[in-house]
Amino acid sequence: MTAVDDETTGLAALKPAEPDRTFAYGDHPSQVIDLYGESYGTDGVVALLHGGFWRERYDRTHLGSTAAALAADLGRCVALIEYRRVGGDGGFPATFDDLPPALAALPGSGPVALVGHSAGGHLALWAASRCPTAVSKVVGIAAVADLARAHELGLSDGAVAELLGGAAKVTDRLDETDPMRMTGPTAPVVLLHGDADDDVPPELSRRYAERFGADLRVLEGAGHYAALVPGSAAYQALRASLGAVA
Length: 246
What we know:
Elements: H1 3-13, E1 21-24, E2 32-36, E3 46-49, H2 64-74, E4 78-81, H3 94-105, E5 112-117, H4 119-130, E6 135-141, H5 147-153, H6 155-163, H7 167-173, E7 189-194, H8 202-212, E8 215-219, H9 233-245
Parallel strand pairs: 3-4, 3-5, 5-6, 6-7, 7-8
Antiparallel strand pairs: 1-2, 2-4
């Protein structure tokens, strides 16, 4: 079994972690937020966006254990945000429309540290550019940071085209959905990307870092999920990255 196989197995083996509280920020069933570590207070909230190539069948539950671990390790409240996804009333523009009200609904005052994995990393970078006063820092994990390039590569059987309403509409919608074509975030950005990631090539994070001066940290031997598994070296890099920009 390879190291990449180990991290996938490790993520699947994590015990489900129940949130302290779940609340809605809209009327749709997917417009909800789970809070972990609420007892630490709501100053310095960390907001977490899950991946899954924006598809309905991948929801926030697979990051519950990661959210709980981060809350305990950082001593901070972690908010795990759900959003509408392709196949469940999401896609363009609904998925994007969910992020500003979700950020506005978070407890506490002031901007938040925004962490996103994979497609969630894309959304985190998008939100940091679109809602600059709401975000004080960004950590993208294996982020789909360059939407146009991801479409060119056909990642996950055309997931970008699905997100944007079909291949014929991609070009017209990239200017308002691709972080590479938006004004760069005013908040500091750290990008963590495993050099053994077969799902989202490290090239996408590298291209974003070169364009906007983000802090790219390549994780040697890590695949797509390593940073989500508490106790792994990649997870420690995630924890350190949050500490560095907090």
